[in-house]
Automatic annotation (TrEMBL):
Binding-site residues, [4Fe-4S] cluster: C409, C412, C417
GO cellular component terms given for this protein: cytosol
EC number: 4.1.99.17
Keyword terms of this UniProt record: 4Fe-4S, Iron, Iron-sulfur, Lyase, Metal-binding, S-adenosyl-L-methionine, Thiamine biosynthesis, Zinc
Gene name tied to this protein: thiC
Name of the protein: Phosphomethylpyrimidine synthase
Pfam families in UniProt: ThiC_Rad_SAM
Length: 445
């Protein structure tokens, strides 16, 4: 039985118990959230046997982040992808997606799944397309077979672009950037060539049967997400969202776990509305937000432009944020790009937890603030999201070991440190208060 079937039957599974301990929540709360579909535990039964550590995605859990890795037709080295995987996990990525489109896809994915203690996601279309010369040659059975193949490998969640329908394609004609989802554009091309409906939609019940057998979670793909600010929140995007809501309910009826993918480029003033609309259309299924980028003018810095939107999305209800690296729109990310993307999104997710007043979310902030005020540099480094970078930046100007206990940094120097001055003021205030308390007693004598 799948996690959602167990939860609906009143059973608290070992995976739910594990998640409850990780999240600091009651097991019964986890069970009830999974049962209603507002939380998922993406845990393929095959990956569980290989050492997966279960986690939860849902509004009652901490805000999660995903890191995309994977090769391309230009580069195809397993060691490089495993280095990206280790970097992402070490810095706190909660899931990874293997988006490989180059050679050796099966062997690379098998290595990733075996090495990954966090859930692994894929887009089956990316591998299916490698087996044909043209997308039109794909059949519905080809796609179903690929989903089953990847499920047998141990993939925990899959992006399936089942919500884009033929009638929605004309709605993209006015867009500046058209259909930017790779999987969505391939399905659209197939539908135009065959003048038939999306095979992932027409065979959705068959997909559910495969996903249920291995307890693979659906990540319903946002084929018509906006690719630029000008295209945000348009008729095409919201038409597909309504269909994703329909598919969510169909998947639940067949015992499958579901999360729904969300918009890519959205101006800040539309983010809250997008989160609220998804919750209504998809019955509060977890929202997995890609980006969203809040401006289009900063290629090379899109990990920043998107993290701004991601923090707002998390605040307003997104359950997982898909990172964007500095290489977005420019090229395949390498290991250092993964570092930059994960750190930017860990900040965004943590900021969202703070804004949502998640219990305990401020503990680390308070601890690092106390360490900063007391000039405990080693503790500051330890509590940092990226201790290596924090230490390196401190040591660029004050590298000697003696400065690890100094009551100043290179910004203010020893004479003008505001925190040292604040401590002097605090001591003075305490001494003055003590004198004030003594004066009435002295006058009485």
């Amino acid at each position: 039985m799948t996690q959602i079937e167990l939860a609906r039957g009143g059973v608290i599974s070992p995976e739910m118990e594990f998640v409850a301990r990780r999240e600091g929540l009651e097991p019964e709360l986890i069970r009830s959230e999974v049962a209603r579909g507002r939380m998922i535990i993406p845990a393929n039964t095959v990956h569980l046997r290989l050492g997966l550590q279960p986690m939860a995605i849902g509004i009652k859990a901490s805000c999660k982040i995903n890191a995309n890795i994977g090769n391309s037709a230009v580069t195809s080295l397993a060691d490089n992808e495993l280095a990206k995987l280790r970097m992402a996990i070490d810095l706190g990525a909660d899931t990874v997606m293997d988006l490989s489109t180059g050679g050796n896809i099966d062997s690379i994915r098998a290595a990733i799944i075996e090495a990954s203690p966090v859930p692994v996601g894929t887009v089956p279309m990316y591998q299916a397309i490698q087996n044909v010369k043209k997308v039109e040659e794909l059949t519905a059975q080809d796609l179903l077979d690929m989903v089953e193949h990847q499920a047998r490998q141990g993939v925990d969640y899959m992006t399936l672009h089942a919500g884009i329908l033929r009638d929605y394609i004309p709605l993209t004609a006015h867009r500046i950037t058209g259909i930017v989802s790779r999987g969505g554009s391939l399905i659209a091309q197939w539908m135009i060539a065959h003048n038939r409906e999306n095979p992932l939609y027409t065979h959705f019940d068959d997909l559910c049967d495969i996903m249920r057998e291995y307890d693979v979670s659906f990540s319903l793909g946002d084929s018509l997400r906006p690719g630029c600010i000008a295209d945000a929140s348009d008729a095409a995007q919201f038409a597909e969202l309504r269909t994703l809501g329909e598919l969510t309910r169909r998947a639940w009826d067949r015992g499958c776990q579901v999360m729904v993918e969300g918009p890519g480029h959205v101006p800040m003033d539309q983010i809250a509305m997008n989160m609220e609309k998804q919750a209504v259309e998809c019955n509060e299924a977890p929202f997995y937000v890609l980006g969203p980028l809040v401006t289009d003018i900063a290629p090379g810095y899109d990990h920043i432009t998107s993290a701004i939107g991601a923090a707002l999305a998390g605040w307003h209800g997104a359950s997982m944020l898909c990172y964007v690296t500095p290489k977005e729109h420019l090229g395949l990310p390498e290991v250092e790009d993964v570092r930059q993307g994960v750190i930017a999104y860990k900040i965004a997710a943590h900021a969202a937890d703070l804004a949502r007043h998640r219990p305990g979310s401020r503990d680390r902030d308070d601890a690092i603030s106390r360490a900063r005020y007391s000039f405990n540099w080693e503790e500051q480094f330890r509590l940092s999201l990226d201790p290596e970078t924090a230490r390196r930046m401190h040591d660029e100007t004050l590298p000697q070991e003696a400065f690890k206990t100094a009551a100043f940094c290179s910004m203010c120097g020893p004479k003008f440190c505001s925190m040292r001055i604040s401590e002097d003021i605090r001591k003075h205030a305490a001494a003055t208060a003590a004198l004030v308390q003594l004066e009435p007693a002295a006058a009485a004598h």
